[in-house]
Write a structure and sequence with these properties.
The chain has about 100 residues and is mainly α. About 80% of the residues lie in helices and about 0% in strands. It has one domain. The chain contains 4 helices and no strands.
Length: about 100
């Protein structure tokens, strides 16, 4: 069986690696330097937008589900959420720490 779409899509290993690097790395960057939240979140949003646009495409999305299954879509969404929530939570934690120190 030859894949028509999945050979052109990112593997789950690539998606998880990108997401964990952005999520965990972004958490610590935003925690210690609040302004670093913006560039990390910008990169994460671009990657999430690209992945989401492919998964929601009526032709590519259905072919991805047919070839890789629904687990690919679910894991992609969870990985995207981690890459977006990590820096956001880090920024919130870092900001609260700075507010406590200022008192």
């Amino acid at each position: 069986m030859f894949f028509e779409v999945m050979d052109k899509e990112a593997s789950l290993l690539e998606i998880w690696t990108e997401s964990l690097v952005l999520g965990v790395g972004g958490f610590f960057l935003a925690k210690y330097r609040y302004w670093l939240l913006l560039p990390v979140l910008g990169v994460a949003l671009l990657i999430a937008w690209g992945q989401t646009s492919e998964l929601l495409d009526p032709f590519i999305g259905t072919a991805v589900i047919k070839e890789a299954g629904k687990t690919y879509v679910v894991q992609s969404c969870v990985a995207m959420a981690i890459s977006l929530l990590g820096p956001t939570i880090g920024g919130i934690v870092g900001r609260q720490k700075r507010k406590r120190r200022a008192r």
